[in-house]
């Protein structure tokens, strides 16, 4: 049934391809055209330097494999960016697993505090994260109690744990919080789905699994790892934040309780532009889901109708990592999805807030990623030209192994540069030897770790060392970084939209948790400005309905904007009269 419906949706969408083609090339005002022309020129030399050792990062992921062929051993840990101590500098968390059985080697997550000089200090011991040993998968970050500190939810084979930041140390508050997820969880995301000013938690559960009920798969007498088809799907969870550190399970009430997902990647986006955060859930070998938030506490599944549930030929793909961004300045968020070998990336262009068309199969995006196994995937503007680029962390399949041994073959990452006209170039080979070294990558996240304005990348590998890649060259262009703090809205500003206008055109981003694969990048927004020497306008649209407008700002700085107090850190930015509140 899914395949027939998907083909119908695809054929209808293909009727619009010619029109879409011309819209990508002809739409927009003159300023956007000028920006596209500038972006299409020869980019400045850029490289990513592996600074892991000099930064003091020594974390190595441990999957506990000892011959038992337990399925979770194929899944590496994620990476999350957070501010442990509230100093404004991004710190980093690498998620670890542990031995089988639980009495063996404990998980030792890599929790690193930024020293503000290009180096980090390992602060895991005594952090509170060391109080419990988990077979960890990923992490999602938000200030769920609006106290000004970043809190952590760790996903795991055991379901996950909530850690409250108590001033640089974390307390496990899972039991008293009301969060009772015990299923195998990979990715999670915070969002204020009901816009009440409190961050709620979506947990992407994967499959029904336990070591005692492991499925045995073998080929020619050799035991190997099974694939996802061997395991039953399980419903994800949505926990509504009631305040006071308490959560309630609203999964059934929200319409998310059908056990049809095998969630790997989760992206929060407002795909129809109605002001309510929606969810894209990438599921492993079952149709992906696009859950539309109806604004009344329920989510309506529209993945098949929207054209994002299956591939062009009606097949369910791996859907491992995902992200959403407006990569062509159309005003709508588009979807990026990482897939398996011979499946290529999905690059779903949002046509009208209802239907998406996969632009990858007929483009460099598809050709460059066809033979990759992509886990983490995200949009970010690595060269600060004002157009979001694509990063894909790849690794892990071996045809000599049984069924689904995605842990074996190392692969280099991909970086696809946005040309500013709806297309991308594969510039991976030009980014230096360190960036092109093959690895068994899993989680990945970006942040400006060294404070120079451009975005660096942290990558975890399966049962191996983490990597920190410093961006050397992106800051040859101008930029603006925006950090928001909500008051009426949630403190982390999840769901807030920032619109930046400069000489080359207008661009926007939404603050969102989750994305990538089992990972989360920084919540601070980075806008590349190319050669633009001034920002004419910054507009912040808060989930509460408040709109703030600021004008005339010099580039190459970080600005902090408070929902109540306005601009906090840059006296050269002139506030315009406050805009009218958007209806809730």
Task: Write structural notes for this entry.
This protein is mainly β and 584 residues long. Helix content is 9%, strand content 34%. Strands 33-32-35-36-39 form a 5-stranded antiparallel sheet. β20 and β21 (334-337) form a beta hairpin. The two termini are 37 Å apart. Mean pLDDT is 89; it is low at 1-42, 398-408 and 576-584.
Annotation keywords:
584 residues; five-stranded antiparallel sheet; 7 helices; 34% strand; disordered C terminus
Strand and helix map with partners:
Elements: H1 2-14, H2 17-26, H3 30-40, E1 47-50, H4 52-55, E2 79-82, E3 91-94, E4 110-114, E5 120-122, E6 136-142, E7 151-156, E8 161-165, E9 170-172, H5 174-177, E10 185-191, E11 200-205, E12 217-219, E13 222-224, E14 237-243, E15 246-249, E16 263-269, E17 278-283, E18 289-293, E19 299-301, H6 303-306, E20 322-325, E21 334-337, E22 346-350, E23 356-358, H7 364-369, E24 374-380, E25 389-394, E26 414-418, E27 424-426, E28 441-447, E29 456-461, E30 467-472, E31 478-485, E32 497-502, E33 505-510, E34 525-530, E35 535-541, E36 547-553, E37 557-562, E38 566-567, E39 574-575
